[in-house]
Amino acid sequence: DSFGCAASSSFPYTSIHVKAEFTAEPTEGEAPLEVTFTDKSVRGFHYTWKFGDDSISGLPDPGTHTYYIPGTYYAVLEIESVLTCRATDSVAIKVEPSTLQMPNVFTPNDDGINDFFVPEKKSLKFINLQIFSKAGHRVYNYEGNGGEIQTWEGWNGKINNSERYAEPGAYFYVLRAVGYDEKSYKGKEYRGAIYLYR
After folding, report:
1. How far apart are the first and last CA of the chain?
2. Tens-level pLDDT at each residue, the chain (198 residues)
3. What's the rounded Cα separation, in Å, for the pair 100 and 23?
4. How many angstroms from the chain centroid is the CA of residue 83?
5. Cα–Cα distance between 64 and 10 in angstroms, integer?
6. 3-class DSSP state of 132
């Protein structure tokens, strides 16, 4: 005060602030898309995770969730503290629609560039690719399902996965595929010629 006197007082205080927060990685990609959810919330006690595809979890850290159907999902975390205070957070997850495009040339010469004949593809749940020589002999066959398609490298230019190299020239392919969005890829549009150069 004006006389130079001072006084203070204090009392114990415990914050009851509640905050819902989480990370999702990745937030977009092709199906099947595995997303890892990590809780970053403050004072969460009860947890409800709604992944946007009718799946729900009550775990504090639900780990990885897989999205199979292309589309945009809104993952929501609802938390409640021991004092019943509530908070929510949400993140959009985008699963890309299926796509399929066929190249017509490849050069399997082990230079690290265009060494495999493989379609440009996304979100496919089934694919079958057969390749034939001009004489009608099958030189390559691949059939895959689900996540294994994402790691498929394609035809390396060897005859039926042997150590024999296919001769340079024209070959013919027949392809059938189905996307996770149930789109079908077959028929004349997915039959054609490819050219192998060494």
Report:
1. 93
2. 666 777 676 655 555 689 999 999 999 999 999 999 999 999 999 999 999 999 999 999 999 999 999 999 999 999 999 989 999 999 999 999 999 999 999 999 989 999 999 999 999 999 999 999 999 999 999 999 998 999 999 999 999 999 999 999 999 999 999 999 999 999 998 999 999 998
3. 31
4. 38
5. 46
6. strand
* Token pair recorded at residue 131: 């390749």
Go through the chain and tell me how many residues it has: 198
116-129 burial, b at 16+ Cβ within 10 Å, e below that, comes to: ebbbebbbbbbbeb
- Find all residues with CB under 8 Å of 81, minimum gap 6, and list them: 16, 18, 43, 44, 45
Answer for the pair 73, 91: CB distance below 8 angstroms, yes or no.
Answer: no
List phi, psi (to 5°) of 147: -65, -20
What one-letter code names the amino acid at 133?
A: S
Residue 180, classified by CB atoms within 10 Å of its CB into exposed (0-12), middle (13-18) or buried (19+), is: buried
Residues 6+ apart with CB under 8 A from 34: 64, 65, 66
The residue type found at 168 is P
